[in-house]
């Protein structure tokens, strides 16, 4: 067989790679059904099947998420009446309400007004402008999806950069000036105007050096500006990923944690919107500051100068960029009634979720029967009002004015708009995660896998936390963060019980670590959007993201061992995690004896 035939065959295989994965993966994992205990082996077979399909996207993510509906009942792992309700728990309603609120904010452009206002305040010097971009992206990503935030912020950044540095194509050409002039013949360098030669003190040779020095300055200046441009492009998706960790609705893994806690530990009520925000917001701020320092240092330095050009030219460029921001903000006009109403309901949404039961103070949920009102109840109440509240200021005179328009009033949000903006595939993905976790729990698979992680029991808990966070952060570079947390969180929960450590001590860092996808363009959609702009190289993301991951792991370790330890009483093994308090329907594997450890040594 010649090389051409082999090449043609390889290309054909590549064209049908997804179909091959779909048909071969079930066959490859088939021995698991016969080599392991019956229920655990069957559940592991389904979990690995879904993991491969999620990581390779051989099937759409939402379709893979629905596999438990058909596989768990037919393989005798879980009854259909238990699997199906997992796809719309109250956690899904909380996520849905957050998405609907985000669609209303986008509908009336409130997010753009917030972004431009922040940029007006911070100014246009590189280090401060990067900080402004990161603050804005992180704040918006707390409420909008990180993909939508990145898609909105990148055009704003490009407009500002073009006003500062001019056309990107010209900038790239200027970066190549050194290579172009070094190869030119000597006579061409001397072919200058007689006027310029007369101005030269050292004659033609001196003028050649003067010209070369000027070219070097232009190249150096352009290279600096290109670095700043890359810093702008890379800081936005990173800040969006960081910002999503601060709220429960900010990213799907946070909600997966809540759902699995309710499934595994029904008595645990420590995590809700308020308590999560109180823990994660300071962590997000800390990580954002460290990230800003690193990105600013790497792409332009921590100084606030614009570039190496003359001071008057620099001031002129800064004024031009500031004018672009102010002009865009001016075009928005004054805040209209709809924007004001959305802003009010947005603040009310956040305040009510935060104050329902923040744990460190008494929340308003005490006025209702205990356990009846959840974050989902609060979210659905607020977003339901958006479909009723008018987008135009009500007027009493309208009723008596015969010349006034008789058209129907428009609410702040229509169901058509909500349908367009809500990613229903993510809702199914959440449900698939809860169904998988339920199967792992009921079959005893998570406990069986946890028993084989005995080596982790031999290291101090603080080191184990860093190891778990680092492992999850590395895995999420190649798989979606939702799929990553779905796969590993049940095992991490069983591991914590196995070594007698508060499960939250392992589960919270793992959940946050799933958002630390910084090293590759394919790691997360925001990275892909920034990379698609054409300004970044893979090596830029790897170089920046590697240090970002280290900073993130250290930040999470610091947070969980300081204020997290105090907030959630992590130094003790809680009663709600003891097996005798858990559902009797959940089988538990008898683990080999291991010296338990606690957190007193932290």
From TrEMBL:
Alphabetically ordered keywords of this record: Ion transport, Membrane, Sodium, Sodium transport, Transmembrane, Transmembrane helix, Transport
MF terms in GO: citrate transmembrane transporter activity; sodium:dicarboxylate symporter activity; succinate transmembrane transporter activity
Designated name of the protein: Solute carrier family 13 member 3
Membrane topology, as annotated: Multi-pass membrane protein
Keyword presence, Zinc: no
Record's GO cellular component terms: plasma membrane
Record PANTHER family: NA(+)_DICARBOXYLATE COTRANSPORTER 3 (PTHR10283:SF62), SOLUTE CARRIER FAMILY 13 MEMBER (PTHR10283)
Main location: membrane
Compartments where located: Membrane
Family per record: Belongs to the SLC13A/DASS transporter (TC 2.A.47) family. NADC subfamily.
InterPro entries the UniProt entry points to: SLC13A/DASS
Protein species of origin: Esox lucius (Northern pike)
Keyword Transmembrane helix: yes
CDD domains: SLC13_permease
Pfam families recorded: Na_sulph_symp
Source organism, top-level taxon: Eukaryota
Ranges that cross the membrane: 20-36, 43-67, 126-144, 231-258, 270-295, 337-355, 367-389, 462-492, 544-563
């Amino acid at each position: 067989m010649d090389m051409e035939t082999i090449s043609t065959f390889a290309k054909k295989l590549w064209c049908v790679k997804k179909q091959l994965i779909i048909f071969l993966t079930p066959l490859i994992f088939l021995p698991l059904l016969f080599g392991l205990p019956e229920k655990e082996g069957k559940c592991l077979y389904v979990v690995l099947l879904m993991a491969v399909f999620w990581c390779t996207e051989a099937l759409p993510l939402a379709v893979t998420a629905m596999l438990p509906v058909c596989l768990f009942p037919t393989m005798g792992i879980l009854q259909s009446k238990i699997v199906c309700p997992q796809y719309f728990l109250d956690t899904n309603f909380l996520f849905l309400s957050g998405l609907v609120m985000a669609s209303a904010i986008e509908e009336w452009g409130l997010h753009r007004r917030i972004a431009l206002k922040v940029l007006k305040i911070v100014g246009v010097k590189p280090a401060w402008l990067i900080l402004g971009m990161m603050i804005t992206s992180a704040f918006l990503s707390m409420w909008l999806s990180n993909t939508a935030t990145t898609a909105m912020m990148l055009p704003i950044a490009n407009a500002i950069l073009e006003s500062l540095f001019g056309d990107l194509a010209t900038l790239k050409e200027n970066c190549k000036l050194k290579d172009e002039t070094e190869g030119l013949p000597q006579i061409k360098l001397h072919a200058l105007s007689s006027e310029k030669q007369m101005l030269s003190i050292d004659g033609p040779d001196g003028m050649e050096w003067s010209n070369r020095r000027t070219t070097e300055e232009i190249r150096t200046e352009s290279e600096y500006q290109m670095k700043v441009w890359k810093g702008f492009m890379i800081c936005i998706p990173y800040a969006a990923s960081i910002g999503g960790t601060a709220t429960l609705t900010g990213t799907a893994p946070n909600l997966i944690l809540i759902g699995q806690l309710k499934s595994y530990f029904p008595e645990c009520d420590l995590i809700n919107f308020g308590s999560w925000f109180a823990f994660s917001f300071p962590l997000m701020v800390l990580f954002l500051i460290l990230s800003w320092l690193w990105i600013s240092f790497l792409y332009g330095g921590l100084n606030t100068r614009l570039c190496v050009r003359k001071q008057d030219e620099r001031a002129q460029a800064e004024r031009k960029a500031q004018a672009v921001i102010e002009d865009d903000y001016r075009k928005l006009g004054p805040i209209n009634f709809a924007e004001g109403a959305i802003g009010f309901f947005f603040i009310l949404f956040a305040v009510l979720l935060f104050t329902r039961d923040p744990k460190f103070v008494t929340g308003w949920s005490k006025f209702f029967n205990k356990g009846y009102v959840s974050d989902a109840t609060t979210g659905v109440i607020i977003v339901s009002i958006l479909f009723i509240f008018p987008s135009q200021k009500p007027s009493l005179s309208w009723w008596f004015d015969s010349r006034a328009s008789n058209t129907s009033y428009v609410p702040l949000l229509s169901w058509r708009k909500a349908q367009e903006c809500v990613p229903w595939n993510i809702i199914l993905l959440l449900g698939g995660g809860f169904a998988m976790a339920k199967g792992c729990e009921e079959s005893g698979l998570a406990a069986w896998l946890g028993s084989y992680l005995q080596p982790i029991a031999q290291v101090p808990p603080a080191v184990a936390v860093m190891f778990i966070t680092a492992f999850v952060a590395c895995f999420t570079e190649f798989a979606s963060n939702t799929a990553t947390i779905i796969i590993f969180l049940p095992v991490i929960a069983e591991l914590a019980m196995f070594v007698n450590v508060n499960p939250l001590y392992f589960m919270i860092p793992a959940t946050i670590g799933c958002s630390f996808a910084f090293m590759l363009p394919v790691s997360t959609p925001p990275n892909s959007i920034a990379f698609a702009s054409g300004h970044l190289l893979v090596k830029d993301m790897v170089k920046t993201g590697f240090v970002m991951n280290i900073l993130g792991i250290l930040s999470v370790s610091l947070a969980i061992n300081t204020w997290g330890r105090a907030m959630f009483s992590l130094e003790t093994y809680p009663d709600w995690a003891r097996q005798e308090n858990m559902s009797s329907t959940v089988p538990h594997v008898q683990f080999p004896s291991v010296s338990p450890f606690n957190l007193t040594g932290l």
